Structures are given as structure tokens and as C-alpha cells.
Amino acid sequence: MSNCNFSSFCTLAEEVCVAIWKKVNESLTVQTLCHNPRHALENTVLSNDSSSECVMTPVPSEKSMLYLCSCIKEQDCNDKLIFDKGTNGFSRLKSKDVIPVVVISLVPLLLVAVIAAMAFYLYRTRQQNKQPKDWPPKRTHYQSLKPPDGCIREANGIDYHGKLLSLSNDANSDMSSSCANSLNHNTEHLPIQLEALVGKGRFAEVWRAQLNHSECGQYETVAVKIFPAVEYASWRNERAIFSDANLKHENIVQFLTAEERGGTASTPQRQYWLIMAYHALGNLQDFLASHVLSWTELCAMAGSVARGLAHLHSDTTLSGMSKVPIAHRDLKSSNIVVKSPRECVLCDFGLALRLDLTLTVDDFANSGQVGTARYMAPEVLESRVNLEDLESFKQMDVYSMALVLWEMASRCDVIGGSRKNLSVLPLPSQGMKLLCATITECWDHDPEARLTAHCVLERFNALTQEELESTTITVLLPSSTEQPESCLTSPCMEHSTGSSPTSPSHPQAPTTAATQDTGPIRQLSEV
């Protein structure tokens, strides 16, 4: 901005050219003059009097907006007042001064960003190494076992001594090899080769497979349950159930590990695997179709089913440690594996539910009507499950177990031989009468009247003990349809006998007076 139309000259050597720009209210004045910088101007001592340009600098003032400038070295240097440089009150910087200032300003920000990134990385790494309660890590660890001579060798610089793994200590499973896989079970998949499809359900397929040990030239036979990508939720739930270390029990299928397969260029279809112990006898449903049970086998197998369910429902382990009770919610003969002709294990926990006391009714809102229809309890079919009482889920399991026990009892040759006249109903032994009473009380229409799994287990323990003490089975002739007092001598018998279904495939059939007392016996006798 040009100051004025006339020029003046400073006569004293110590004087400099100055300019005063002042705005009071709406009045603006500009004044140029010569001034001795040693003296105050507008109550301000000029600091920059060696510049060749008149760069206006704001000066604090209570009554006006005031700018001052001073210059020297050139004629009429205050003729042009420069407001676009330094009018914001900051000193002007030359281009060579900008880079150091920018660097100094950005270095602390970069350091903070690097530290934050490192802290986040360390946090994520620690979280992945931890094993959360409801979401287990990608791999589970196995118990180390010192292998016999001949299985210890070094390959690719890796010492396999002390690193070989035992996948099972179960003498009744087919996993009996002393050598095991030595891969890093946190990052790599087990070397498994699928052999044959042995089962298929709603959510997954079950394959018999070989777990190879190239270092030893041996392999283990395992069962691989393969879920498609759309059944991820079922795989995740079953994996979470198996992640509970307190679930381990002789009548619960042994879980080895879980893997995520596929999702790569070579195998684009993603699959989710559960690797478990393999039992060659298959599931209970197929086993009963081809085998007739003796009374001793029936007591042992039925007792093992009750023992497994009692462990699921219990809030403590056998050693007294606390555990979260679990409801199976899909208990049926095809979800029970025959471990030996006298023992079974429970499997398929895709619909299982952890009965955590910290959960609310809203958490169980969608947990009512699940499972297989023919094994569902009446309250499930009628949508009247009491979600406020966690015992309701256990009572549904007990009802399903009653139908499984009915299937097993119907394949028991308790008397022996064949009957020509099926219309004549021979009365079973006292043990069979107790079993019938137990089944009847377990499938009672009233959930509160049903036995608990622990009570059923006590009855089978009593039957087993009685079987050991007695070497003969007395067959009684029928005298009436009323239940004798000898059936009420076992523990947990103080329950009312309720209704029973007419067949396991129709558990919701209406009850008649004729079937309340003799229904189970008639069914078991006619099969």
C-alpha cells in the first residue's frame, strides 16, 4: 500500500523511517515520519529498525488497532506498507528456516505414532497368545510323552526328543501309536489324511482319518468332524465347549484339536475341523441295530451314558474343582459313540449350552426349541421352557436320555431264548423293573418330577453293585401290573411315576391310564 504523494528526508543520522497505521472505530489514519528508535513511539520501542522494507507489526493497544514499522538503508522505504508478511504477530521465516522448524515439529509426532503402533502390536500379540474362556486359540496343546527307542531322531535340524506328542492315553480307542506328530501346533496343520466317510449329520460330516508321523513311519486313526463354512457358528460353539479343560471325562469323547482349513488359492473352499479320538464301533444307534445286549452289557452301557450326562450337568469335577454345567440339548443315540461293548461316550456338542449363572434370561432367549424333534421333551415342543431356571435345560436332557435308555433296553435279551406267544408278557427281572421305573420317571411329562442325571447314575451304580453280588437272575411270573416295593429300594426313588410315550419316535403321544404303569414293560417285552 502506498503511503502518500510527497516525500520527506530524515536529517539526523540516528533517525529511521517509520510508519504508523492506526484505526480508531471507523477512523483510519496513516502517518510516516522520521524517528529516533531510542525513543518510544506510541508507547512502544521499535525493535526492527534495520530492515529495508516497512513491514507492519501489530502493537497492542486498548483503544485502537495499531500497526508500526521501521526501516532504513533505502530511500522512501516506508512509502510502501507491507501487511502480508508478519501481520499475524509471528516473525517471518525465510525458506531455509522452514525445514528445521518442520522437522523439529514432526519428530515428536512421529515418535508418538511409532510408540503407539508398537504398544498396539504387543497388545494384540499377547491377546492372541492368551486362551479366552469363550474363544479358544487356534490350536490346543497336547501332553508330552517320551517315545520309545526308534522314534527319536533329528530331521532338518529339529530335535524330536521330548517333543513327540501323545494324542491319547485311552486304551480303548484306536489311537495306540507311541509316536506322534512333531509340528508346531500353534501355527501348522496336523498331517491328516482323510480315509472314509463314517457319518453325516445336519451340520457336519465325520471322517475316519490317519494322522501321519513321517518321522516314525507310523500313524494314528482319528475322527475328523468337518463343518462347511456356513456352519461356522456350530463349529465355534462346539470348539468353545471342548476348550473347557474340566470337560475331560472318560464318558465324553476325547477332543484333540480344532483347525481352520481352506481359504487359499489351492483350496478356496473354507472348512472347519474338529479332530477327536476315533472309536471303530460307531454310534449307538447303528450298534443297537446290529447287536443284542445282555443284561450286564445294558447296565454297563446305560450307566456310562448316565455317567457322561451327570458329568456334563455337574458344577464340580470328580476331583472337586468347580466347572460350569453344560446342557447337551441334542442327546440321542446317534450322538453317542460306542467306546467298547460295555461303555459309551457322549459327542456332538454343536448345540450344547454352558449354564453360566452370570447369564440372564435374555441370553437364553433363543435357547429353547433346539435339537431333534423325536427326542424333544414336551415342554420344548410346546414352547413352555422356563428360561429363568437353568435346571430346565438339564431336565430336557434327562427326557432325551430316557428315550436313549428305552432304545437300549428294547435291544436287551434279559430273559434269553425266543418267545412263541408275544401276547404273553413275561415280567422282567427285578433289575429290569427298576430300569423301567427309572425310564418312566425320566420321561415324565412334568419336568419337575423327572429324575436328575446324578440320580439315574446312582440307580445304575446300585444295579451294577447288585449284579456283582448276585450270580443268578430270578425271573418272576406276573401277578399284577402294580410296581412291587422291591423297585423302590434304590436311592433317588422318591419321585412320582408320570406318563410315558407309546414309542420313542412319538414322545409327545397322549397318556392313557393303561400305559402309565405297564407301558414301558409292554414296549420292552414286545421288541
- Our measurement of the CA-to-CA distance between the termini, rounded to an integer number of angstroms, reads 115 Å
Structural class: alpha+beta
How would you describe the shape?
elongated
- Lateral arrangement of strands in the main beta sheet: 11-12-13-15-14
Low-pLDDT runs: 86-94, 131-185, 422-427, 471-527
Helix content: 25-40%
The overall number of domains is 3
The CATH topology label of the largest domain is Transferase(Phosphotransferase), domain 1
What is the level-2 CATH architecture name of the largest domain? Orthogonal Bundle
Taken in chain order, the helices and strands follow as EEEEEEHEEEEEEEHEEHHEEEEHHHHH
Question: How would you describe this protein?
Answer:
By secondary structure, the protein is α+β, with helices and mostly antiparallel strands. It folds into 3 domains: 16-87, Ribbon (CD59); 143-277, Phosphorylase Kinase, domain 1 (2-Layer Sandwich), CATH 3.30.200; 284-526, Transferase(Phosphotransferase), domain 1 (Orthogonal Bundle). Helix content is 27%, strand content 18%. The protein contains 9 helices and 19 strands. It has helices at 95-129, 232-242, 284-290, 295-313, 378-381, 391-410, 430-442, 453-469, 513-526; strands at residues 16-24, 27-35, 54-55, 57-59, 65-71, 81-82, 143-144, 154-155, 158-159, 165-166, 192-200, 205-213, 218-228, 255-261, 271-277, 326-327, 336-340, 343-346, 353-354. A 5-stranded antiparallel sheet has the order 11-12-13-15-14, covered by helices on one side. α4 runs antiparallel to α6, α6 (391-410) runs antiparallel to α7 (430-442) and α7 (430-442) packs antiparallel against α8 (453-469). The radius of gyration is 43 Å and the shape is elongated.
